[in-house]
Amino acid sequence: MKFDGYLKVRIGEAAELKPTTYSLRHSKVFNKNSLAMDPYIVVKVDDYKIGQTHTKQKTTRPTFNEEFCVNVRGGQALELAAFHETPIGYDDFVANAVVQLEDLLKFSAMNETYEGWLDLEPEGKVYVFISLTGSFTDGKTPPPLTPSHKQTPNTTADSQDLNSNRNA
Does residue 56 lie in a domain region? Predict the structure, then answer.
């Protein structure tokens, strides 16, 4: 099913974030034993990025309290991906969660909002508030009209009315 409407996502906090082995590659070189990271979260609907939180420094339990709002047309999935910001090169992937928008209604007993913890893979969780205002469609488009269903204007009646108005 596809969602058409207004989506509001509030990222509260994340917990139990674990640096990946790839993100720890510099800790051995620089003799750093800290598991602290500089996390941020990217928010996507399907493959479209709708926002990114600010980076929180040296923590595995960041508090974001940031909100993202967007009008969605034909949306199916919400993705939250946590990254570790690195000073050089690409940022390191930490974890993510992908939730089908229609499943959010099941989790929230058919309300238009969901509030709670979403588990991240491979580890961690994020506290979110998600509000959906709109409707779900099955994604099927109606069949096109065949010529027998089209209404054609009655041109003879229209021309008779014009002629009668001229004579009056």
Answer: yes
Average pLDDT over residues 18-47: 76
Q: What is the mean pLDDT of residues 90-112?
A: 82
- Average pLDDT of the chain is 80
CATH of the domain at 39: 2.60.40.150
Q: Say if 156 falls within a structural domain.
A: no
* Structural element, H or E, at residue 161: helix 155-167
Query: What predicted TM-score, i.e. pTM, was given to this entire model?
Result: 0.75
Separation of CA 17 from chain center: 21
Q: Is residue 149 part of a domain?
A: no
Q: Parallel, antiparallel, or unpaired for β 39-45 and 77-84? A: antiparallel
Which helix or strand (DSSP H or E) is residue 123 part of? none
Backbone CA torsion sign across 122, 77, 115, 60: positive
Closest CA to 15 of 51, 64, 77: 64
Instruction: Name the residue range of residue 42's domain.
Output: 2-137
Any domain includes 93: yes
